[in-house]
Amino acid sequence: MRILEAASQVGRNGAMIYARRIIPLLRARGHEVWLLARPDSWIAQETAGEAQLVPTDFSRWPLTELRRVAEICQRERIEVTHSHLTRAAGFCALLRVLHGVPGVAHAHSHQFQLHWYFQKLAVAVSRQTLRQHRRWGASLGARGRVLHNFVDVDKFAPAPAGGGGTDPLRAACGIPADAPVVLQVGEISPRKGQLDTLRAAAQLRKGRGGTTRFVFIGTEQCNDDYRRALQEAGARPELAGAVTWLGLRDDVPRLLPHAAVAILPSHQEPFGLAGLEAMACGVPLVATSVGGIPEVVEPGITGLLVPARNPGALAAAIGSLLDDPARRAAMGAAARARAVAEFAPGPHIARLEALLAEGARR
Q1: Residue 162 — pLDDT band, cuts 50, 70, 90?
Q2: Do 168-342 and 2-150+344-361 fall under one CATH topology?
Q3: In this structure, what are the phi and psi dihedrals at residue 151, rounded to the nearest 5 degrees?
Q4: Mean pLDDT for the stretch of residues 64-92
Q5: Tell me, what's the pLDDT at 133?
Q6: What's 141's DSSP letter?
Q7: Which of 79, 105, 154, 350 has most Cβ atoms within 10 angstroms of its Cβ?
């Protein structure tokens, strides 16, 4: 097929990471791929040389930009667009309505937008996400499909057996080799629950002594109030020297396997890719039972689920795993097995191909 991937985010987030990862996978299966994006965007820079860029600012009024992109689609014989996030999805919906360019919209979040009324085929990252859009009245009905995200199980893999060599996670944080590390990966924002983590960390450290360390990876996407709340929570005496903020890292697959426990205490999470990446690394996961997370985590087998906004339950679950190394190892092995069996790239791309072909026919 001849596919136009449309990605409207300038920076990097889960949806853009997904779009970036599928481009080489689609090309490897013989498809021709173009990228509709801002030329200064993260994904445009990342895919330079992999996909032909169609630069745009996604302007929908006046109609000049839509006409220009439609002409490119006609000239390049684009068979289907595949849009990610609101601005791109709205733009591609208008391409279909005004110029007859078939399209598939990917629902990466629960956020409702008017463009859902104009989509002929929508792909949601979880069953819960699809249900949410139906509750909003988008009437996706027969037009809605579910396709869980995938994880590169070769890139995200357990640490080598025997633990030989330097532990890069503890080296990056200056943490002693014998200190258990609880790791949270994801944007620093209220919906990701870092404040709950800090409150749970204080409870855990107070109850079991001062050995456990808490490490956060991710960029700030929060307001001043949340930032101040994090600073105040992190300043508690129980957390002195126990918290490390690493910011944005490109070596997460190298660091993640060395965590004792990974956590995903989100308040709202359409899927939870960071949790799946931890599972692929063989790290037991403690996550909240929100959004699409219960579709990925088997409670008590591949991880533990706790209520959202409940630091006490979060602390208890983390503590139970830290106190039981054998259970951690068994849970990590089961998590890795599930990631390989059900969330590997190959089956995902095959299913995506079928959905894009269906969208092209519509």
Answers
A1: low
A2: yes
A3: -135, 140
A4: 97
A5: 84
A6: G
A7: 105
Helix (H, G, I), strand (E, B) or coil at 203: helix
The number of C-alpha atoms within 13 Å of 304 and in the hemisphere containing its C-beta is 20
Q: Which residue has the tokens 């994880």?
A: 151
Contacts of 300 (CB under 8 A, 6+ apart): none
* Residue whose pair of structure tokens reads 């014989």 in the numeric block: 77
pLDDT digits (tens, 9 = 90+) for 176-215: 988 999 999 999 999 999 999 999 999 998 877 678 999 9
Domain boundaries, the chain: 2-150+344-361, 168-342
- As a three-state string, the secondary structure of 77-90 is CCCEEEEECHHHHH
183-222: b or e for each residue (b if 16 or more CB lie within 10 Å)?
Answer: bbbbbbbbebbbbbbbbbbbbbbeeeeeebbbbbbbeeeb
Structure tokens of 150? 């995938």
Question: Which class does domain 2-150+344-361 fall in?
Answer: alpha beta
CATH code of 168-342, in short, is 3.40.50.2000
Q: Which two tokens stand for residue 171?
A: 């080296």
